[in-house]
């Protein structure tokens, strides 16, 4: 029987798959037999073993019960799931959940914290179709996003300043109904007492301070953290020598962007063209 070679050194996901296969082989079980014990199909077991699917929390816990390994696979599964996220992002999310102030800039798509579930699902489906992530990784990202959004409801609520490039509201995502609901969500966000929403219009041109998404956090002790990312890499920065100039640039961007009233008016005008 041909079996895909696994190199556990290539990634946490590959290490999890290799560990799962090793435990299964040691007991003489087929993938279907292990699947029956865990409540999954043999095809699903194969996909995790070969790294085509990342292990969900439920999958890892079920594997631990089947093998009697305590929580070993569950802990290893967390590392494998984190591997699907950009470097620095898991640590950033932990700080975001406790930040006193959140300042974000986004272009191309609506910022995650402001996305509706339908909009987020459409973005995720696109990434899965492109092969950028697996279906299970997409599911994990949606769960993480929902948790991030719920953290904004804590007491006291953080102050959230959002500057979005005009491209965010003009790029159609998920169809007209999804986009209409997303624009409504932005208008609702702008009405909250702890938020400020601004649009950086196209005609800002070279005066736009950032060319990549960036998020700046102010922690409870007034320390600042910056997180920026490209399509392939994320970077968390703590050094004030780097963070403070970014904070200054963000304030300049706010001054150059449309006011909240003008931004909401632009969004409302665009919304009238959707169902």
| Helical run tally | 12
Give the helix proportion (percent range): 40-55%
The string of secondary-structure elements, in order, is HHHHHHEHHEHHEEEEHH
**CATH topology tier name of the largest domain:** Endonuclease, Chain A
N-to-C CA distance: 55 Å
Q: Give the total of domains.
A: 2
- Percentage of residues in strands: 5-15%
Q: Structural class of the helices, strands and pairings?
A: alpha/beta
Summarize the structure.
With 275 residues, the chain is α/β, with parallel strands linked by helices. The chain contains twelve helices and six strands. The chain has helices at 12-27, 31-38, 42-49, 57-67, 72-82, 89-96, 117-130, 135-151, 166-170, 176-191, 240-256, 260-271, and strands spanning 101-106, 159-165, 195-200, 214-218, 224-229, 234-237.
Give structural notes.
With 275 residues, the protein is an alpha/beta fold. The chain folds into 2 domains: 12-82, Orthogonal Bundle (434 Repressor (Amino-terminal Domain)), CATH 1.10.260; 89-271, Endonuclease, Chain A (2-Layer Sandwich), CATH 3.30.870. 52% of the residues lie in helices and 12% in strands. It is built from 12 helices and 6 strands. The chain has a 6-stranded mixed sheet, sandwiched between helices. A hairpin with a 4-residue loop joins β5 and β6 (234-237). α10 packs antiparallel against α12. The mean pLDDT is 88.
């Amino acid at each position: 029987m041909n079996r895909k070679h696994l190199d556990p050194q290539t990634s946490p996901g590959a290490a999890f798959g290799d560990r799962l296969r090793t435990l299964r082989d040691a007991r003489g079980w087929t993938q279907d037999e292990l699947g029956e014990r865990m409540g999954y199909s043999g095809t699903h077991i194969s996909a995790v073993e070969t790294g085509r699917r990342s292990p969900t929390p439920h999958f890892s816990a079920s594997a631990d019960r089947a093998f009697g390994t305590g929580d070993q696979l569950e802990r290893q599964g967390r590392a494998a799931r984190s591997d699907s996220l950009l470097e620095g992002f898991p640590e950033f999310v932990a700080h975001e959940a406790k930040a006193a102030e959140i300042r974000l800039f986004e272009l191309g798509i609506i910022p995650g914290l402001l996305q509706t579930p339908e909009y987020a699902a459409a973005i995720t489906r696109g990434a899965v179709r492109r092969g950028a992530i697996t279906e299970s990784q997409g599911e994990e990202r949606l769960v993480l996003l929902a948790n991030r959004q719920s953290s904004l409801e804590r007491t006291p609520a953080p102050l959230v300043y959002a500057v979005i490039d005009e491209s965010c509201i003009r790029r159609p995502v998920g169809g007209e109904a999804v986009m209409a609901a997303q624009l409504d969500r932005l208008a609702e966000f702008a009405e909250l007492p702890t938020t400020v929403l601004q649009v950086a219009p196209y005609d800002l041109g070279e005066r736009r301070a950032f060319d990549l998404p960036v998020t700046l956090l102010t922690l409870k002790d007034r320390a600042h953290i910056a997180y920026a990312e490209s399509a392939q890499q994320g970077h968390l920065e703590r050094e004030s020598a780097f963070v403070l100039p970014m904070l200054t640039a963000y304030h300049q961007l706010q001054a150059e962007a449309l006011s909240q009233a003008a931004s909401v008016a632009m969004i409302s005008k665009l919304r009238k063209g959707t169902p």
